[in-house]
Write a structure and sequence with these properties.
This protein is of the alpha+beta class. Helix content is 32%, strand content 24%.
Length: 123
């Protein structure tokens, strides 16, 4: 498990809004962090569902997009639910910070402005 898992206030708003449609989302998110992110970052198991987001101009930390997210409320979809999770991983502190969660049918890509606002490099 990670030393710390944090959430940006905007992430909390995203989650609250989506959880009205997908009742199991909060529980599914906990399982996702415990299993998929733990496997990816601690055991180097890559199932092809987590990618570092390119061209962000952020060097202070690494920002990832998870495309394989199993949501039990989306029956029959499995890990191809269409739910996307954007997060930052601070390796030296073993900390995950959840940045954004969205449904691909509502929004095509991550909010790069939000990412830039929270993680822009300080010269």
């Amino acid at each position: 498990m990670f030393n710390e898992v944090g959430r940006l206030p905007e992430f909390e708003k995203d989650l609250k809004k989506l959880a009205k449609r997908y009742r199991t989302l909060e529980e599914d998110l906990t399982t996702f962090v415990k299993t998929q992110l733990n496997l990816y970052h601690h055991q180097s198991v890559d199932n092809g569902g987590v990618f570092e987001i390119p061209d962000l101009k952020v060097t202070s930390t690494r920002i990832y997009k998870a495309k394989k997210f199993a949501c039990r409320s989306l029956k029959g979809k499995g890990v191809r639910s269409g739910i996307r999770v954007i997060y930052a991983y601070f390796e030296e502190r073993d900390r995950i910070e959840l940045v954004e969660i969205y449904y691909k049918g509502d929004q095509e890509n991550e909010d790069r402005v939000r990412i830039g606002k929270h993680y822009k490099d300080i010269d």
